[in-house]
Q: What sequence folds into this?
């Protein structure tokens, strides 16, 4: 019984861990359990006539993987002079891997227990907030926690894999 409670406590700790990264000078977080790896963006093969947030394909160990510009997907229009995204966070959604291009990734994982996550005010509950789980608070730091389940519509998701499955 005590061993089962310890396992449950460990599971909760892992569920509360987030990889943090930045885009346009804001901090964001993704649950570590949804992340396969983080890679440096090397070469991207651009696909003509694709969605504006779809950067193209990148080679990850001889596998063509779709790469999405997360700033464009989330319509984050911050500093336009910022350099191109440097890192890609490889996530798995519905059994398929997708690379999310971000400006930079923190080397540290942060923990946000449920009581430290603010769902945000009702006035921002709109279409764009469907991507957000809440705002994690740790001291004077605020991290926008993203919801991967709502990141792509079914049509968008299937479109990422149609021509390059």
A:
């Amino acid at each position: 019984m005590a061993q089962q409670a310890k396992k449950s406590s460990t599971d909760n700790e892992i569920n509360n861990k987030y990889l943090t990264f930045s885009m346009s000078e804001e901090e964001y977080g993704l649950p570590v359990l949804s992340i396969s790896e983080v890679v440096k963006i090397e070469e991207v093969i651009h696909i003509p006539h694709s969605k504006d947030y779809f950067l193209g394909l990148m080679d990850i160990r001889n596998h063509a993987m779709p790469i999405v510009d997360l700033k464009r997907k989330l319509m984050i229009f911050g500093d336009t002079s910022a350099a191109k995204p440097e890192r890609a966070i490889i996530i798995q959604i519905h059994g398929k891997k997708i690379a999310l291009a971000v400006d930079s990734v923190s080397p540290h994982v942060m923990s946000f227990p449920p009581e430290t996550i603010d769902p945000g005010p009702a006035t921002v509950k709109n279409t764009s907030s469907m991507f957000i789980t809440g705002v994690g608070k740790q001291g004077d730091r605020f991290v926008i926690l993203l919801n991967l389940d709502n990141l792509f519509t079914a049509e968008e998701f299937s479109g990422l894999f149609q021509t390059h499955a």
